Amino acid sequence: MTHAAQNLDTRSLQAIDNAHYLHPFSDHKSLREKGARMIVRAEGVYIWDSDGNRILDGMAGLWCTNIGYGEKRLADAAYRQMMELPYYNSFFQCAHPPVVALAKEIAALAPDHMNQVFFTGSGSESNDTVLRMVRHYWSLKGQPEKFTIIGRHNGYHGSTVAGASLGGMKAMHKQGGLPIPGIHHIPQPYWFGEGGDLSPEDFGIKAAQELEKAILDIGEDKVAAFIAEPIQGAGGVVIPPSTYWPEINRILAKYDILMIADEVICGFGRTGEWFGSQYYGIKPDFMPIAKGMTSGYMPMGGVIVSDRVANAFEEEGGDFNHGYTYSGHPVAAAVALENLKVIKEKNLVQYVKEDIGPYLQSKWQTLAEHPLVGEARGVGLVAAIELVKDKATRTRFDEDVGIGVICRDLSVENGLVLRACGDTMIISPPLVINHEEVDELIEKAWLALDLTLSHLQAQGVV
Ligand SMILES: *Cc1c(COP(=O)(O)O)cnc(C)c1O
């Protein structure tokens, strides 16, 4: 215990929190009433709160602690780098050893046609960078009117002005006058929620063709790029039907539109490949990355850029007037490098693909037998269940029941972090999770569902 605040009890911590800490993505009124859950330490796949409860972290923090908690090698890497060179920038033609080593390492993992990396401090900053790069690219190519970027309803690309604008979260757009001009959204490939009577395969084609419709509406010569997550994460782990990405690939090639695959969640092993683009055969021009790149031990993000775009920047010359004080931060870079080493040495990507991914998915499917569950789906180490009132017709509960939040709170109280996206419950556990821990996760998820059902029965909702 090195900080005074760590010696305080839960009530005192919550009082300070209430008085001084303005939280991200929280309802401040109910937070003040309930008090924040204080997380005080973590190890492996578990976190502990200030009352001593051990909780299995089914969300890997926020989709990021891929190697799990408590990896001393990353702490050592940070310490060594702080002593050697705690900070220097890469503006104005400077660089330093950790950032060049990290760029080389990431380029080696990325698809063959992507060899350059721009660094940022987060996923949101990465998408701000992408927006400017896309438009700068078409300017350099003499087609500045190719300006509009097409995103998707319910997509998540971060919380900065550009990130939230590229994303398709209505609740975010409502605050702050978003989206900014030059951004258009099309429907998502969400079969369970929006597929109606179509088969998933037919719906996948239909959802992809929304892109073609938008391109023709806006005009091929005005559309710069399409941005999407290979698997939509914060929107509810929307796994696209198998027909979706091949059809998107065809459309992008036909109209010469740049592809931005937002890999902030899918990147660094979550799908059982290094990147979600490799899992789905997507050919991106840009891959925004963050989260798993440092396993959350340090804030860092980046954009992996295709040779086509990087070559245009090089050939045409002139400054790209964009960068962050902490672009390529040496300590973050050293931690990211060590994180990639750990992922490789533990063969975590292969472990997800061949062992723990299939194991988790087969167990997760058993949740579909629960009376509240309309669908269980997933890929690698990311998965979702849909809570419904009636399975056969995929009928939802009324919105004011707030079933997702009820289920989430009951789950956390009983030792498992599940996240609620509306009525969709999602997980994205650390890649190091073992079989026993998966069994525990499934047992606790089932318990949360049972408790949710009892709660609804007590309330007379079912
Ligand atoms: C989390 C997330 C972001 C934003 O990253 P931050 O580091 O929170 O800014 C962007 N895109 C996707 C797909 C994400 O999941």
UniProtKB/TrEMBL annotation:
Its needed co-factors are: pyridoxal 5'-phosphate
Extent of the signal sequence:
none
UniProt keyword list: Aminotransferase, Pyridoxal phosphate, Transferase
Q: Which GO terms describe its cellular component?
A: cytosol
InterPro entries membership? Aminotrans_3, Aminotrans_3_PPA_site, PyrdxlP-dep_Trfase, PyrdxlP-dep_Trfase_major, PyrdxlP-dep_Trfase_small
User: Which SUPFAM superfamilies does this one have?
Assistant: PLP-dependent transferases (SSF53383)
Q: What does the sequence similarity comment in the record state about its family?
A: Belongs to the class-III pyridoxal-phosphate-dependent aminotransferase family.
The UniProt entry, under PROSITE patterns, shows: AA_TRANSFER_CLASS_3 (PS00600)
Key word Transferase present in the record?
Answer: yes
Organism superkingdom? Bacteria
Gene3D superfamilies, alphabetized: Aspartate Aminotransferase, domain 1, Type I PLP-dependent aspartate aminotransferase-like (Major domain)
Give one GO molecular function term: transaminase activity
What name goes with this protein? Aminotransferase
Q: What Pfam families does the record tag this protein with?
A: Aminotran_3
